[in-house]
Structures are given as C-alpha cells and as structure tokens.
Amino acid sequence: MLINRRFFLKFSFYTGLAGALFRPWQIARSAGAFSTGSYQATLYSLFGEQTVAVSDLVKLQLPAIAEDGAVVPITISSDLDNIEHIWILVEKNPTPLAAELVLTSPALAFMTTRIKMAESCAVVVVVKTPALLLMNQQWVKVMQGGCGTG
C-alpha cells in the first residue's frame, strides 16, 4: 500500500482525536487496584466496605484443570441488565486484579478472554450494576504455572 500525503494526514488526525477522547482519570481510577499485592487489599481497593453478594446470575466457564497457567480461557456471561463494570480477580496471582472492563452502554454481558494464573486457586468475577455488586467464583487447578515469580 502506497502512503500518500492525504492518507497520512487523515490517519494522524484520527489517531490524535482518539487520544484526545481518552480520559486520563479513567486510567488512574484502578491504578491502585492493579498495584496491590494481596487479594484482600485488591478487594478493599476496588469496593471498600461495599457488600458483594455471591450470585449464580454471573456465569463463569473455566476449565477445572488448566494444563498451562499462562493461557487459561475464561468466558463470562450474565442476563443482568445495565452492567457497568466487570472485574476478573485471580486470588493467588502476584497481581490479583487480572482485568477491569468498563461497559459504556447498557448491554448484556458476554466476553471470552484468556488470563494468566500463577498457581491453583479461585478465579473471582465481580459484576456491577447501578444497584448491585454481584460475584461468582470457580476453582481452577493449574498444572504448570503461568505468571509466578519462579
């Protein structure tokens, strides 16, 4: 593909516009939670004193045994309306908060991704709606570590 001046200017404009629309305070919002060292500290950093109820309305699909902790597939789904946030936490990882997803429009939640796990532990998913904080968890046995320090 030949890059001409018009293409370069359009590309530069749209790249700059995308950067201008990105809000820096959204990055800083969870920076503390990503840097905490323990699972309990991460929960407190994210939710403070709020009650997080265990619910089957948050559905998880994870393998019972993961051959390689570096690539553990996870599917999250829920029939709840107006989901605003989804957090994925791995209890025994060096950084327990694996992902935070911010949904900008009301939608039914369905996502599939892969996470790293240092060792066998519970994977916890917390979902936030305007009225509720709900969680579900599933134990995954890891045969070979993925993000451990050793």
TrEMBL record:
Pfam families: SoxY
Superkingdom per UniProt: Bacteria
Signal sequence extent: none
Residue ranges of every copy of the Ig-like SoxY domain listed in the record: 45-147
PROSITE patterns the UniProt entry points to: TAT (PS51318)
InterPro entries for the chain: SoxY (IPR032711), SoxY_sf (IPR038162), Sulphur_oxidation_SoxY (IPR016568), TAT_signal (IPR006311)
Name of the featured protein: Thiosulfate oxidation carrier protein SoxY
